[in-house]
């Protein structure tokens, strides 16, 4: 049989993508797709590659992250320009079909990239198949809802939280989450989960201090899934609500109700699991729910103020499972991210924020997003009540109490003392020329914190560390900042030091 050249081009392109992309990325975003349709473009346009994508979220993600690379690879392989056209696959209602018909009709199942690469499949003519069948309903790996036996209507009625009860805040989405280095890993992982629930990073454990955007991020995952699959069984709750449910059902001896509520979910989003500490019955029930959800390939996302191994008074069975998926941190936002957050929040209030004012606020409010929003509200309110334009002087007046507290609390000298106490070295070691790792490392950490938490310039910080050159300070800042992204233990130590210094 003559081979379809367009199909062959798409297969070779996918083989290249499989070789070039990280395996997890390819398996999540490319492998589940149906083969593209390749056709000659009008005039000298080259090739038009039409690709059907199962949902809007995946369409946007593939367009933003992979379309350029796909076009480049296909153009290179074809020897002429190739343009990628993405469209949503049609969603047709399922017609009644007997089990025997479903099993005996392979032509009704569209071929996916994964099947092509694994089996080397080529298009096969099926007289009874509709020509448009492949575009009608592509197989999607990782639908939130891994296939499970259908429940009787009477049982199913109790399973999903209704749209009014999933507790997802529709205002918290990926669109209004400001990306930055501080939340890059957590945001990327959350996007992967939203695109293919149950497939990877399960469970996803997000940790960090208060007000850094953990709750926003998990609501964004819930909103993305509900947008694509409105009937998905999604539930957001704070850990205290789960504790309350356990207590209530324990008193009533109605644990079947608890299981019906939690074991049937497709996506469980739970905030602040550190609240489970010391509550043995709650931990037992959460362990049971956890195991039941993973067994049916439902997804679990949790947040906490510390990483799994740092959780106190929680059963090791749970912490080991928390750590079995992917654990990511959200850090306090860096300066540029704080500026972007302020400008975006001000736009949402329909009050443009001058960039110099945003920089002034961002340089002085560093703790977390919640404090940043509070400072912004103060400045906006002060501007409205005083009928003055927003400028640096107005911001200084509006935030004078906050600024005086911060300036009084955090100084380089205070940082040096706090770090020296934490690592059990002498304060004099901060200024000395000694270079043993036990002294040099805390000194670099103190320099990093001085740059992050004070207004001092690099030369000023160097002077306060025994007259060191500004390049020495810069090296310390870059070294500790880089390691913080990869070293969980160091990140936790820095988190403790920052919280101590901020009171």
Automatic annotation (TrEMBL):
Pfam families: Bac_DnaA, Bac_DnaA_C, DnaA_N. Its main location: cytoplasm. Residues 200-334 form the AAA+ ATPase domain. Coiled coil: none annotated. One of its GO terms (cellular component) is cytoplasm. Residues 411-480 form the Chromosomal replication initiator DnaA C-terminal domain. InterPro entries: AAA+_ATPase, Chromosome_initiator_DnaA, Chromosome_initiator_DnaA-like, Chromosome_initiator_DnaA_CS, DnaA_C, DnaA_dom, DnaA_N_dom, DnaA_N_sf. Residues 384-503 are annotated as: Domain IV, binds dsDNA. Residues 1-130 are annotated as: Domain I, interacts with DnaA modulators. Residues 167-383 are annotated as: Domain III, AAA+ region. Transmembrane segments: none annotated. One of its GO terms (biological process) is regulation of DNA replication. CDD domains: AAA (cd00009), Bac_DnaA_C (cd06571). ATP binds at residues 211, 213-215. It comes from the Bacteria. Keywords: ATP-binding, Cytoplasm, DNA replication, DNA-binding, Lipid-binding, Nucleotide-binding. GO terms for molecular function: ATP binding; DNA replication origin binding; lipid binding. It is found in: Cytoplasm. Domain I is involved in oligomerization and binding regulators, domain II is flexibile and of varying length in different bacteria, domain III forms the AAA+ region, while domain IV binds dsDNA. Belongs to the DnaA family. Oligomerizes as a right-handed, spiral filament on DNA at oriC. HAMAP family: DnaA_bact. Plays an essential role in the initiation and regulation of chromosomal replication. ATP-DnaA binds to the origin of replication (oriC) to initiate formation of the DNA replication initiation complex once per cell cycle. Binds the DnaA box (a 9 base pair repeat at the origin) and separates the double-stranded (ds)DNA. Forms a right-handed helical filament on oriC DNA; dsDNA binds to the exterior of the filament while single-stranded (ss)DNA is stabiized in the filament's interior. This is Chromosomal replication initiator protein DnaA.
């Amino acid at each position: 049989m003559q081979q379809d050249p367009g199909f062959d081009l798409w297969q070779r392109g996918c083989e290249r993508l499989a070789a070039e992309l990280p395996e997890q990325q390819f398996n999540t975003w490319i492998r589940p797709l149906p083969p593209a349709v390749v056709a000659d473009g009008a005039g000298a346009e080259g090739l038009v590659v039409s690709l059907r994508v199962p949902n809007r979220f995946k369409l946007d993600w593939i367009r933003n992250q992979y379309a350029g690379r796909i076009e480049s690879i296909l153009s290179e392989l074809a020897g002429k320009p190739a343009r990628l056209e993405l469209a949503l696959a049609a969603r047709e209602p399922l017609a009644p079909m007997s089990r025997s018909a479903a099993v005996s009709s392979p032509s009704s199942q569209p071929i996916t990239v994964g099947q092509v690469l694994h089996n080397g499949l080529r298009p096969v003519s099926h007289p009874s198949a509709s020509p448009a069948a492949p575009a009608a309903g592509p197989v999607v790996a990782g639908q939130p809802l891994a296939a499970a036996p259908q429940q009787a209507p009477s049982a199913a009625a109790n399973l999903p939280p209704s749209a009014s009860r999933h507790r997802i805040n529709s205002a918290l989405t990926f669109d209004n989450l400001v990306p930055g280095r501080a939340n890059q890993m957590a945001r990327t992982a959350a996007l992967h989960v939203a695109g293919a629930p149950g497939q990877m990073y399960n469970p996803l454990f997000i940790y960090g201090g208060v007000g850094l955007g953990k709750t926003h991020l998990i609501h964004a995952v819930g909103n993305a899934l509900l947008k694509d699959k409105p009937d998905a069984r999604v539930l957001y709750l704070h850990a205290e609500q789960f504790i309350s449910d356990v207590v209530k059902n324990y008193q009533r001896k109605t644990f079947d109700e608890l299981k019906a509520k939690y074991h049937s979910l497709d996506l469980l989003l739970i905030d602040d699991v550190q609240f489970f500490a010391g509550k043995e019955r709650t931990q037992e029930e959460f362990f049971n729910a956890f195991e039941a959800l993973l067994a049916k390939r439902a997804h679990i996302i949790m947040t906490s103020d510390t990483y799994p191994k740092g959780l106190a008074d929680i059963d090791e069975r749970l912490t080991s499972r928390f750590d079995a998926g992917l654990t990511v941190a959200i850090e306090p936002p860096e300066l540029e991210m704080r500026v972007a957050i302020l400008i975006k929040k001000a736009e949402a209030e329909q009050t443009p924020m001058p960039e110099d004012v945003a920089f002034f606020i961002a340089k002085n409010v560093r703790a977390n997003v919640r404090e940043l929003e509070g400072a912004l509200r103060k400045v906006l309110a002060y501007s409205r009540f005083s009928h003055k334009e927003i400028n640096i002087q107005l911001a200084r007046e509006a935030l004078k109490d906050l600024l005086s507290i911060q300036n009084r609390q955090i100084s380089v000298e205070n940082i040096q003392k706090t770090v020296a106490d934490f690592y059990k070295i002498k304060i004099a070691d901060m200024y000395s020329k000694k270079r043993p790792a036990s002294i040099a490392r805390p000194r670099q950490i103190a320099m990093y914190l001085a740059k992050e938490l004070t207004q001092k310039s690099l030369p000023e910080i160097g002077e306060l560390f025994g007259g060191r050159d500004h390049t020495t300070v810069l090296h310390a800042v870059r070294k500790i900042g880089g390691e913080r992204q990869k070293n969980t233990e160091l990140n936790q130590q820095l988190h403790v030091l920052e919280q101590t210094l901020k009171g």
